[in-house]
Design goal:
The complex is a heterodimer of chains A (296) and B (472). With 296 residues, chain A is an alpha/beta fold. Chain A folds into 2 domains: 109 residues, Translation factors (Elongation Factor Tu (Ef-tu), domain 3), CATH 2.40.30; 143 residues, Nucleotide-binding domain of ferredoxin-NADP reductase (FNR) module (Rossmann fold, 3-Layer(aba) Sandwich), CATH 3.40.50. Chain A is globular. With 472 residues, chain B is an alpha/beta fold. Chain B folds into 3 domains: 128 residues, Fumarate Reductase Iron-sulfur Protein, Chain B, domain 2 (Orthogonal Bundle); 160 residues, 3-Layer(bba) Sandwich (FAD/NAD(P)-binding domain), CATH 3.50.50; 156 residues, FAD/NAD(P)-binding domain (3-Layer(bba) Sandwich), CATH 3.50.50. In chain B, α15 runs parallel beside α16. The chains are: A alpha/beta (296), B alpha/beta (472). Chains A and B meet through α1, β7, α8 and α9 of A and β5 and α14 of B. The structure holds flavin-adenine dinucleotide (2 copies), iron/sulfur cluster and FE2/S2 (inorganic) cluster. FE2/S2 (inorganic) cluster (FES) binds next to loops of chain A.
Chain lengths: 296, 472
């Protein structure tokens, strides 16, 4: 079960997997995710369902190898199985014909943007993409965005590809130029999502973000994923993960995301890919042997 | 048995000393020796009209199994229990006997009742240790297929019976491991996982298929399952956490008991970083609530190294819903109990970690609808308790996923699934039982509901009464 059909490295620390999971593929809707576990002692962690092919019975995952679990996942090879894979979880995105939409992805956040952008496109919306990353080699999925967007603005922190600067700068220009914007979707690092929310708030532009708190079960049973939206406690895994950006308490989200930071880095330090019960075959050129490349 | 030594005192349960056991997650009670079990069994009067059986939710044949123990026929005793209770090793450990069979046992009127729970545990453990637990001969397949949603005690008990009667059974479970609360809720120091796993082995010997990582309502709906199965039993439990709804509840270090226990029991955060899932447990832990869940959380926190664990409860000791044994064990393990106290706010430090619980004193007023005196706040009685970790164990709610995705399934006001006496829901072919029907109750009641539903399903599919002598 859950056999990895193909694996591709699309950026220095970012991987794309196609996994056989016919039941999930059949039911997946834009905005939903899976929860995975990669070895017997592993944790449960969520990844967005980027796409699915119901006929082939496969799903697509794109992830950044940032810590223990994602590095172990990146160490798996085609033909191997993902130990546990459950989904599709979360509420599907609310899709309608908004008109002209700006879809913004920062870093790995570009991956979860794809399925929603695709659904918006399929519903007849006109799309502008903003694709932000640290540097040129971290820019991902420009082609996929290009296929569904009228135009795609690429920006990098260091200016090595596209414009130099943050995605918010591009959005700000669009707002200042009075471009028509009926709907904004932003997914990426929490400060980026908050930046987008602040930009669209004054004009009241309908803005949705997808939150990524720490999750355990992913089905509403633990409350670990709770976030505050419009002053109310919500469970991101069942009430979300998408929420109205103008109502999210981003400070709390950021604090809660860091709850295990000291501990997690211990685990990452302990991480030794070939001493895990996985018995993953030796492999070359895998980022899992490095320390966390981005020092996050 | 003529020559019975009449003793008033029951055989005490040998237990590991508190200072030793708070350092690990191994089981606390050691279990009776054969001599102790025989001696305890000999206290039973073998009543003609046994009151103990009246108190048992599934009517275990108590005098009969106790007599078999008195005669030294231990494995036979286990099999006698299994005629009505498929999982005696579990029930012997977690049933609230003091409110059931041991409450109604006649010996309890004058002295101590027969230690029925300990004997049940003894017989089941003996059988597991000494005898190949027999899987009953596979009956002829009936050709009927049943889907069971949820692998807690309700689902497992239903699956065991149906499989024994020749039906093809598949259990769907959303977690990566089966068992429901027995897996993610009840700690291993109360229910060693070897015991649970042995019961699951038994199920697989019966030919039951368990499909983990399958969320009914997401991976497939009940309507889709009905295309594969002739009937469905819904036993999804009441696994959703409740919070207090007070300011500061989303601070760091504040957990639902469900999350705290799941991290430790299911994900093994007690062995982080060998296991990847962490848990935060500071030195000053406040547990809010006074049921089994609260006791389990408090005792788990002690085992994770917390020095000061305080249970805060808005009523008094007499109203604590936890099993008596759990309360005693918690106190032996230096868990402090603060009664007539209710947190009204949690305050954090600059980094957002909970540091102080503002509590208000309560007093008992008029009885409420449950007959217990209602706690009412004492104005102006607020004071602060220091804390690093707060665990909220104030009850749970129905799991809404199945009702929400099954339009023609009737639910009650609070989201629990409505059933008739046979366990049937409003939707043809769909039965339900356990916590998803009753709200949070007990392991044995969920098992009882599972077995009743199994009978109804068997009847509805075959038009016949279930075969006698179930439970091998
Ligand atoms: C609904 C949802 C969908 C997601 N979809 C994707 C996806 O499609 N692709 C993808 O790459 N990631 C996605 N994530 C984030 C992903 O789950 C985390 O990156 C992963 O859990 C990290 O686990 P780890 O053990 O590898 O790292 P950890 O060891 O747990 O963490 C390493 C470091 O990574 C950072 N980190 C941890 N968790 C998160 C998080 N939730 N968000 C941001 N940074 C984090 C922290 O700085 C931490 O110190 C999603 C999260 C959610 C909640
Ligand atoms: C910490 C704790 C301690 C307890 N201690 C005791 C005790 O000492 N004695 C006692 O008698 N009782 C105790 N209880 C209560 C007892 O455990 C429950 O009453 C009993 O487990 C209910 O059984 P159930 O089968 O109805 O549901 P559960 O045991 O809750 O099992 C339900 C299962 O269904 C799964 N599920 C839910 N939704 C879906 C879905 N959509 N698709 C697939 N699977 C799904 C869940 O993951 C879960 O595994 C305790 C409860 C807790 C939480
Ligand atoms: S009521 Fe007590 S004494 Fe009588 S049969 Fe039951 S266990 Fe034995
Ligand atoms: S992850 Fe457990 S409730 Fe959302």
């Amino acid at each position: 079960m859950n056999e990895i059909v193909s694996k591709e490295q699309i950026a220095p620390d970012t991987w794309r997997l196609v996994v056989r999971a016919p039941e999930i593929a059949r039911r997946r809707k834009a905005g939903q995710f899976v929860v995975l576990r990669v070895h017997e002692k592993g944790e449960r962690f969520p990844l967005t369902l980027v796409s699915s092919d119901p006929d082939a019975g496969t799903i697509e995952l794109i992830f950044q190898a940032v810590g223990t679990s994602t590095k172990l996942l990146a160490a798996l090879q085609p033909g191997e199985d993902i130990l546990d894979l459950v989904g599709p979880l979360g509420r599907p995105t609310h899709i309608e014909h908004f008109g002209r939409c700006v879809v913004i992805g920062g870093g790995y956040g570009m991956a979860p943007v794809i399925p929603i952008a695709q659904a918006l496109h399929d519903a007849g919306n006109e799309l502008v993409g903003i694709n932000g990353a640290r540097s040129a080699d971290h820019v991902i999925l420009v082609d996929r965005m290009g296929a569904i967007c009228q135009r795609v603005e690429v920006c990098t922190d260091d200016g090595s590809l596209g414009r130099q600067g943050f995605v918010t700068a591009v959005l700000q220009e669009m707002i200042e130029a009075d471009e028509r914007i009926d709907f904004v979707l932003a997914i990426g690092p929490t400060p980026m999502m908050r930046g987008v929310a602040e930009l669209t708030r004054p004009n009241g532009i309908n803005t949705v973000v997808s939150l990524n708190p720490i999750m355990v079960d992913g089905t509403g049973m633990c409350g670990g994923c709770r976030v505050e939206v419009a002053g109310e406690t919500k469970f991101a895994c069942v009430d979300g993960p998408e929420f109205d950006a103008h109502e999210v308490d981003f400070d709390m989200l950021m604090r809660r995301q860091r709850m295990y930071d000291g501990l997690e880095s211990d685990a990452t330090r302990m991480f030794k890919p070939h001493s895990t019960p996985l018995d993953a075959p030796a492999h070359e050129g895998c980022c899992c042997e490095e320390d966390r490349p981005d020092g996050k | 048995m003529g020559s019975r030594v009449m003793t008033q005192q029951r055989q005490p349960m040998p237990e590991r000393p508190a200072d030793e056991r708070v350092r690990d997650f191994d089981e606390v009670p050691i279990g009776y020796t054969a001599e102790m079990a025989v001696a305890e069994a000999q206290r039973c009067l073998q009543c003609k009209r046994p009151m103990c059986v009246e108190g048992c939710p599934v009517k275990v044949k108590i005098p009969q199994f106790v007599e078999l123990i008195a005669q030294g026929r231990f494995s036979e005793a286990a099999r006698k229990i299994k005629q009505t209770n498929a999982f005696p090793a579990i029930c012997g450990r977690v049933c609230p006997q003091e409110g059931q069979c041991e409450l109604t046992c006649v010996l309890g009127r004058r002295g101590e009742p027969v230690a029925i729970g300990r004997l049940e545990r003894f017989a089941a453990d003996w059988e597991r240790a000494h005898d190949e637990v027999e899987a009953p001969a596979h009956p002829a397949p009936t050709g009927h297929s049943i889907g069971v949603v949820g692998s807690g005690p309700g689902g497992l008990a239903c699956a065991a019976d149906l499989a024994m009667w020749g039906h093809d059974v598949t259990v769907y479970e959303l977690f990566h491991a089966p068992g429901g609360v027995l897996r993610y809720g009840i700690p291993r120091f109360r229910l060693p996982r070897a015991v649970l796993n042995a019961e699951l082995d038994y199920l697989s010997k019966l030919g039951v298929t368990i499909r983990t990582n399958f969320v009914v309502g997401r991976t497939a709906t009940i309507d889709e399952l009905l295309q594969e199965h002739d009937a469905i039993f819904v036993a999804t439990g009441a696994g959703l956490p409740r919070f207090l709804g007070i300011p500061g509840e989303n601070l760091l270090g504040v957990y639902s008991a469900n999350e705290f226990l799941t991290r430790v029991n299911l994900m093994r955060a007690d062995r982080f970083p060998e296991y990847d899932t962490p848990v935060h447990c500071g030195d000053n832990v406040i547990v809010v609530g006074a049921g089994n869940v609260a006791m389990d959380a408090a005792r788990t926190a002690r085992r994770l190294g917390a020095e000061n664990v305080t249970v805060v409860y808005r009523r008094t000791r007499g109203e604590m819903p936890a099993r008596v044994e759990e309360i005693e064990h918690a106190e032996q393990e230096d868990v402090r109990m603060h009664f007539l106290l209710s947190p009204i706010e949690l305050r954090g430090d600059d980094d957002g970690w909970a540091r102080v619980a503002v509590c208000r004193r309560m007093e008992l007023g008029e009885p409420d609808e449950t007959g217990r005196r209602r706690p009412v706040p004492v104005e102006g009685s607020e004071f602060e308790l220091p804390c690093d970790t707060v665990i909220v164990a104030v009850g749970s709610r129905a799991h809404p996923l199945v009702p929400d995705t099954t339009p023609d399934l009737d639910v009650s006001r609070r989201g629990y699934v409505a059933i008739d006496d046979s366990g049937a829901t409003s939707k043809p072919g769909v039965f339900a039982g356990g916590d998803i029907v009753t709200g949070s109750a007990t392991v044995i009641e969920a098992m009882g509901a599972g077995r009743r539903a199994a009978e109804s399903i068997h009847r509805s599919l075959t038009g016949q009464e279930p075969p006698n002598g179930n439970g091998g």
